[in-house]
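Aim 2 progress update. The chain analyzed this quarter is reproduced below.
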Amino acid sequence: DIQAELEHNQRIIADFGKQQGNASWQDGEFKAANGVKFLACGRGQSPRGLRDREARPDYIVIDDLDDDELCRNEKRVHDITDWVKEALFGALDVGRGRFIMVGNLISKNSVLANLTKTKGVHVSVIKAIDKNGEPVWREKWTKEEAQEYRDFVGYRAWEKEMMHNPIVDGTIFRADWIRYKKLPRLSKYEMLVCYTDPSFKSTTSNDYKACRLWGKIGKELHLIDCYVRQDTVSGMVRWLYDLYERTRDTAAVQFFMEANFMQDVILDEFDAEGKLRGYQLPIMPDKRKKPDKLQRIEAVSPLWERGFVFYNEKLKESPDMQTGIEQTLALERGSRIHDDAPDADEGAIWMLQRNSRQESFQPVFGKRPTAKNIW
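Predicted structure tokens:
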């Protein structure tokens, strides 16, 4: 790219003169008229001893070194990291000069990830959108274009390619544990719970909010309806009121939200929507003292593995359902991914399990057994 600009960019030529030298102007290795030499190297190619007379390189740029295939091989990543630190950085004059690596953090097992952990390295992180969902490069694309891109590639690819947040599948949940089925009428369920996780940043549209309607029927737990969106609190509240109106004539749904979230800002939104509709949503606080979030979600994951959990087949292709599943599959310790959907799932399932327990022992009438006939 630099060679093409020096050779054909008329503005550069007008200001600085013709830069294409006569002595050395090969593709990928050339010297400009002012004496500055440029060299392009491939990944792993040896740059040892590189110099132009007495001058050694004083500016090295690494651009998009990582790729998906490389990141799947830990040894190759280790070897290329060594090449960057030893051969490539060693081409500078005892470290003097500028040494820059540009790229997307597509994997935690990558050369870029390794370099960001290196002492003395300054890391500049530029994400596609800011905390309010606005594109950082506003001259390039609009907020609507960013949303269209995200809708097409999906949550996981968006986080990996555009937000420097690589996600590894299957750390807690596995894709083959996700099962769909045609669900019965709401009146058939023993208990119905809609649990809401509105997220801490209640006014930030970039944060996910999750509402999950679960039902228990026999040993099975069914995800009947769901809302997982980057939306405002008012948008979430409207969805909950709509759900209540869709279900109140056929079944009794219990609405819960973690007590810590039931603050004035959120309750004001419920109150305002209730005044418009003429009634208040009967939502209750979940006051239990919760252990670590990931521990709670891990504790219910065997229900998926053992085949007790099913998702509504009718909503299989809906963005809310797919976003929730992607968040569930992406869960792992130390990750910065959104976990609002699986957190709400755990809350609903805990309520269903607690309130619909069935005794499994058989009562025995007659003489109390003695120690002799017990053992």
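The longest strand covers residues 220-230. The two ends are 84 Å apart (CA to CA). These observations will guide the mutagenesis experiments scheduled for the next reporting period.
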